[in-house]
Every structure is written in C-alpha cells, then in structure tokens.
Amino acid sequence: MAEKSNQITRELQQRVNQLIKETLKDIRTEALDEFDRNFEREAFFNEKWARRKFNDDKSRGLLVQTGNLRRSITGRITSRDSVVIESTEPYAQIHNEGGTITVTRRMKKYFWWKYITITGSKRMKAGIPITYSERFSRKKDGTLRNTKRNRALTEEAEFYRRMAMKKTGSKITIPKRQFIGNHPDLEKLLKEIFYNNAKNFDTL
Description:
single chain; mainly alpha; two-stranded antiparallel ribbon; 49% helix; 11% strand
C-alpha cells in the first residue's frame, strides 16, 4: 500500500514538474514576443516612447537604427525555475531606464565622425580644422546656395555637431524608452498562460 502511494506521489510530482517546465517555456516565449513588439509599438506596451528632439522623421523607427538592440533580447530559464529576459548590448540599460552619460573624448570623435558622414566634408575627414561658416557654400550676399552639399547639412547633422562640441566630462541626458520590464498588461498575459496550463494539468 505504501509502495503504491509512493508511486502515485512520484507520478504526481513528475506531472507538476512537467507543468512548471511547459509554463516557463510559454512565459519565456510570450515575454520575448511582447518585448519585441514594443519596438513596433514604439512604446512600453501602452506607454509611448519619447520622440526625437532632432530630425523626428516618424517613418524612421525609434531604437532600430541597426536592429542590433532589438535582436539582442534573449530569454532563458534558470535552474531556480524562473525566466530571465535580458539584452546582450551594453547600451541597452541606458535606453531601457534612461539617465545621463558622461561625454568622453572617444564619444566626441564618434559624434564628429557622424557629422562628417552626413555632411561629407573632405577637409574634416582629412583632420583639417574649418570654421562653421566654411561648412556651407554661400552666394556673394551670404545666403546659402541650393546645393546638394548644403541640403545635406540637416538638423540631424547639426545635432551631432552640437554633441561633438560638448566639453569632455559634460552630461548628455538619454530619455527612458523602456522595452523590457514588468507591466500590468504582461502580468495579465502571463496569468492567462498559467491558468490555461493548469486547466490542462490532467492531460499532461
């Protein structure tokens, strides 16, 4: 009698373990899908992300310049029966939480490189200093010529110029654009997964 009782207990425990395993897998899948969709929504579920302060072309998605950040989101099940969702990109946290970063010489070089890429300034590429006025092609009366190069000097290029001109050690504020984390909508979805799997417990 005791042996039969122990067998039932073992079988029940196996079914419970299977329920937990399947539920964690479903939770991981659902969470990854929802966090990925945040990039399409340009929002953390129903909380809209801050728009750009420069060159806010709404046809260009937020946080998807290369797609690396979006692709970097991964999920794993730990040995303690929990699900961990994380990003492998080092800059993911500052975007997800917002905050300030300190301008370094390396960053200034990057900003100048971005400016050079946008404006196509050969003299700047060669490392030859030029004044602001020299970056534009002007008529004799001082007005800008309607040239391809002048049109390339967009607001976005000016943003990178302003960033490059910042002093080393100064601060840049990064707005919070959360894409990973807890949210009532996610909690609701995960509860549904648990309840649906629990209903099917007898069929496991």
